[in-house]
Design brief:
By secondary structure, the protein is an alpha+beta fold. Helices cover 49% and strands 7% of the residues. Strands 4-3-5-6 form a four-stranded antiparallel β-sheet. The protein has a two-stranded antiparallel sheet with strand order 1-2. A hairpin with a 4-residue loop joins strand 3 and strand 4. The longest helix is centred in the N-terminal third of the chain and has 23 residues. It is globular and about 85 Å long. The N terminus is likely disordered.
Length: 483
Amino acid sequence: MNQPDEPAMKDAHPSTPWWRRLWEPCDIASVVFFRIAFAGVMLWHVGLFLSRDWVTFYFTDSPHHLSYFGFEWVRPMSGERMQQVFYLMGLAAIGVGLGWFYRLSAIVLFVTYTYTFLAEAGLFQNHYYMMSLLAFLLILIPAHRSFSVDATVVPERASQFIPNWCRWVLMFMVALPYVYGGIAKLNGDWLQAMPVGFWISYKSDLLVIGPYLTQRWMAWALSYAGLIFDLSIVPLLLWKKTRWFAYIAATLFHLMNAMLFDIDVFPWMMILLTTIYFSADWPRKLLRRPLPATDSVPTAAPTLGQRAVLGVVALFVVWQLVFPLRHWVYPGDPSWTEEGHQFAWRMMLRNKNVFIRFYATDVAKGETGEIPVDRMLNALQLRELVVSPDQIVATARLFAEMARQAGIEQVEIRAVVLVSLNGRKPQLMIDPELDLLTVDRTWGHQPWIVPLTEPLRAEPWDVPTDQWPAELGIELPEVTVTN
């Protein structure tokens, strides 16, 4: 049987407008594989959180939680309810993978996963954000028309074809972290092999390659290899002649990342989902299961509802193209201010060593005490807190509320925050005299963030953090009460 590789795209007339080609049908096989692979990754994610008791540690046992600006109202549930949310998420992932009550399963998967993502900002990772976006897209894509329980139960709705836009938007989503990650690496620090040198030195105990990871030339090699990879991989995947080479390179790249960095499911997810760049019928070719001879390419015009869905997808695409670039409208280095850093695919760009102390002042009594922040937040929350001025301000309000509950009516919260970015000499990020309760979280620029002035150093700053104030001549507030 002579089965075309991508029938709709090959048969299309060269003069066919691009917007009409969005609706031309292609083989659904690669999208079905994408659906099953993504559902498997989501189920793996659920399994990690449940088996390692992360649900309890990050959500249930933590008395306080970090929030995203604009989503402060999203809070974790108490008791066993968060466990139940993850069980429901796992069930929904199974439903998506099997194509069983697919639309309902996709909606439940998106809602439960995005809820857990928003409920604790300390858990932020770019690939967690990507998983939320992909879960949303699968609600709109009819990926259950084939190889699914739904297609078996309701055969009149089954089809071996799917509109081109469904596959193309998945290709777009897989491209985002590559392309924007490469653009983000075009900065002075990365081009001087920072902070890669820090990241890889933490793995110096690895067999065979460990000793090389502490050498400076390796940091330079990996920095520029990562930059070239991110900027070139999508064009190479799009060109048929280099596609196999690009996919092998991507696989090796993600395997190396899995070995060097703690990014759980991300490398394996990208290895699986990058297959969307192969021909639409690649799973059939692999399994030697060609389309039945009776199957014909559908040519029906899209309905009003289908056009509305594509309109939503178009808005989604435009937003994803524009939103990651917002850091350009803020002054300063986003790796320092964190303004525009999140949700922008700015991955592995900054290593921050931080000295931080919070102080609460009872205005009426004139007494100042140090806030034991390390006893109030878990390690993951502290890691996010100390690098982000926005989270520092948000957490100051939490401390103020706790002080008021303890009977202190008038309280001021200040912080001494010294930060070393990518090996620079530490400098203040916030004025120690600033009452953090006088500033608000906002989408706009925060002028109270002290601009970065320290240059990148040839040799990273190597002084223990507890010695920084004395080394830099910075006096800590005098504590007049003991907490």
